[in-house]
Specification:
With 70 residues, the chain is mainly alpha-helical. It has one domain (3-57). Helices cover 40% and strands 9% of the residues. Helix 2 links the parallel strand 1 and strand 2 (52-54). The radius of gyration is 12 Å and the shape is globular.
Length: 70
């Protein structure tokens, strides 16, 4: 990923989590299984407490509430 795109991605994560916190939500980042380890490696540098899950890790009966998209 180009450095400028990486900075945009990080800024999007930070803004999304700030908005969710203002709404009283505790969000989880869900991504595709193939890129989950890479996304986790990026995010743990600046938000180590952030939960990053792949779509395969979400139980089929869980009802998700989308609070943002990056």
């Amino acid at each position: 990923m180009a450095p400028s795109r990486l900075q945009q991605f990080i800024a999007g994560i930070q803004q999304g989590y700030e908005r969710a916190a203002q709404m009283g939500e505790l969000p989880v980042l869900i991504t595709s299984p193939s890129i989950r380890p890479h996304v986790r490696a990026i995010i743990e540098r600046f938000r180590p407490q952030t939960v990053v899950m792949s779509q395969n890790e979400v139980h089929p009966r869980i009802r998700l509430k989308t609070v943002g998209s990056i």
